[in-house]
Design brief:
Number of strands of chain A: 13
Low-confidence stretches of chain B: 223-235
CATH architecture of chain B: 3-Layer(aba) Sandwich
Order of helices and strands of chain B: EEEHEEHEHHHEHEHEEH
Number of domains of chain A: 2
Number of helices of chain B: 8
Distance between the termini of chain B: 16 Å
CATH superfamily of chain B: P-loop containing nucleotide triphosphate hydrolases
Strand content of chain B: 25-35%
Largest interface: A-B, 22 and 24 residues
Largest sheet of chain B: 6 strands, mixed
Distance between the termini of chain A: 30 Å
CATH class of chain B: Alpha Beta
Mean pLDDT of chain A: 82
Largest sheet of chain A: 13 strands, mixed
Low-confidence stretches of chain A: 196-213
Strand content of chain A: 15-25%
Number of domains of chain B: 1
Oligomer: heterodimer
Chain lengths: 422, 235
Amino acid sequence: MENIRLAFQGIWSHKMRSLLTMLGIIIGIASIITIVSTIKGTNEQIKENLIGSGSNVVTVQLYQDDWAYDMSYSPIPAGVRTIDEDAMKTRLENLSLVEQVSFYTSRNWSDFVTTPDSTFSGEVYGVDQDYFNVCGYVIGWGRNFSPADYENHRRVVILDTKAAGVLFGTDDPVGGIVEIKGEPFTVVGVVEQRNSFQPTIQSYQDFYLYADTSAGAVFLPSVCWPMVFRFDEPQSVAVKVEKTDDMTRAGQLVAEELCKSQIIGYSPSGTQTGFAYRSEDLLLQAQQLQELSNSTNVQLIWIASISLLVGGIGVMNIMLVSVTERTAEIGLKKALGATKRRIRRQFLTEASVLTSLGGLMGVGLGIVMAQVVCTYNSLPMAISVPAILISVAFSVVIGLVFGMLPAMKAANLNPIDALRRE
Amino acid sequence: MILTLEHVCKEYTKGREPVPVLQDICMTVNQGDYLAIMGPSGSGKTTLMNLLGCLDVPSEGTYILDGQDVGSLSDEALARVRNRLIGFVFQNFNLMPKMTALDNVMLPLLYAGVPLRTRRRQAEEALRLLGLEDRMHFYPNQLSGGQCQRVAIARAIVGKPKLILADEPTGALDTASGEQIMQTFRTLNERGITIIMITHEKHIADHADRIAHILDGRLVEPEPVQAVKGGAFAK
C-alpha cells in the first residue's frame, strides 16, 4: 500500500518523463484494443448480414443423410409422417426459446409458374397463416390470405416484390392470374420483407447466391399445395426464436422434437433410412465467416504485441536510469534498515504502477480509436470487455517482467557506494 | 559492552591490487560511551564507520555488535540490525526531498513494520524531543541546515537504537548550528545512547568523552582518553 502510494508520488513528480515512459505501453495497448474492437465490430456485421438483425428465424427441414430432401426430384419418403400441424404447433411453441412456428412446403428453381408473357423461376411455398408473420414479411399491397381462403381452398397466390416484377413487370399484379403447372391462381397481394428484417443474405441458399441474384418467391395457401404438387408432403418448419444467440439451440430443439414424432423408428444415433429433421444453422455459418476474418486479424494483434514489448523495454530503460539517479535514496533506505526485498518490491511496484497506468490510458485511447475506425468504416461499435481486462492485466505483467532487472539492480546496490555517490 | 572489534581488517580491490584500508583494528565501546574518531581524509575513518554501521563486513577479524557476530549475518539480518540497533546521522543529512519531516522520521519505523498510527506518534515524539514540533509538515528544502540535521537526528533516534553513528554531523553546518547539534548529542548521550562520531575537526571531537585517532588505517590510542574512561581500547 505504502509502496503504491509512493509509486504514484514518484510518477506524479516526474509527469513528463512518466508519460514518455508510458508512451510505448499506451500505443501498444491502444492498438490492441482498437484491433480487437474492430474485429468484434466486423463479426457483429457479418452476423447481422447473414441472419438479419432481429429476424431470428431458423428453418428446420427434412434431410436424408447430409442433403436436404428435395421433393422436386424425389417421391414422398417412406418412414416420414406428415406433420399434424395444429397439434405440433402447440408442442413446438411450448418449447423454451421458441416464439412462434410456421409450417410450409416448398420447391426451388421452379419453371412452372407462368403468365402469358413470362415464366418465373424462383421459389414456390405452400404456407400456413402464420408464415408471413414468422418470416418477417409484410403485405406491400393487396391483402393477406384470409381464413376463408384456407376453408374454401381458394386458388389464390401472394407474390413477393421480385416475383411480381418478373411476372407482371410494372403492371399491378393484384387481381392478375398466374398459372402454376397449368392451374390458374389469382394474385391477391404482394409481400415485402420488413425493413429491420432485411439481412443482406436472407437464407441458406442466398448465402451462396447473394440477395441480388435471389429469384423471388411465390406463396400459396398450404391447402392448395396438393392441387399442383403432391399430397402428404413432409413440411418444413420456420421457427422464430426470441434471441439471436439462441437460434442454434432452438433450431436443434425443434429438430429433435420433430425427429421424435415424425420419423418412424428414429433414434438419436440415426435411422436406417437416413431421414432426420435438421436446422439450417445460419448462426454457425456466421461463426465460420467470423473465424475467417479473425484469423487475418490475429496477425495484427501479434504486431501490436511487439509494440507492447518495445514499450516494455522502454520502461525498463527509464527505470534503469531512474535507479542510477536514485542511488543515494536507495543507499539511505538501506542504511535505515530497508531489506533487499523491500527495495526490490518498491521498484517493481513502481514499474507495474507505471505500466498499468499506461495500460489504462491505452485502453482509453484504444476505445476512442476504435470508435473512429468503426464510424469511418460504418461498422457496428463493439468494445470487447475481456480484451480490456486482459490488456490491463498484461500491462501489469509487463511492468513486473521489465521492472525485474532495474529492481534487482537497485536491490543489489552496495549501500556504501550508494551513500557515497553525491 | 556494546561492540567489540577484534583484529579487523578491510581491503578493497582497486583494479587487480587489493588496497588495505583498515589494518588490525581492535576496539571496544561500552554502553553509554561518547566517542569521537578523528583522522585526516583518506585515513579510513569512513570505512570504519561503514563497518561499525553494518553497511559493510570486515575482510578479516570479527566485529561483535550487541552480542552478534556481524560477519556471519545475512543481508536480511544486517538490514534488521541497522534498523533496530543503529541510528545514522550523515554530513549532508540525507533526507528524502519529496517527504515532509514527519514522513522522513517515520521511514525507519516503516521498515521495522510498525503500524501507521504508532509510527506517527513515535515520530512526532522524536521531533518534539528535538524542538521541531512546529516543523513537522515542512519539506527539507523549507528547513535550515541545522533544522535538517535535527530532523535527521530525530530519524536516527526514532527507532530507539542503542548506537548512533554520526559521520561529520556538523560538516555542512555553520558554527552556531554545529554547537546546537553537539548539545543535542550530549543530551542524547546523557539519556544513555551510545554515540560514535567521526570528524576531522578538533573542536567538535572535544565534545566527546573520548577521542580515538585513525591514521593510515590504524587506530592510534591517545593516553588521556584511556585515563578518562578506564581503558576502553585494548591492543
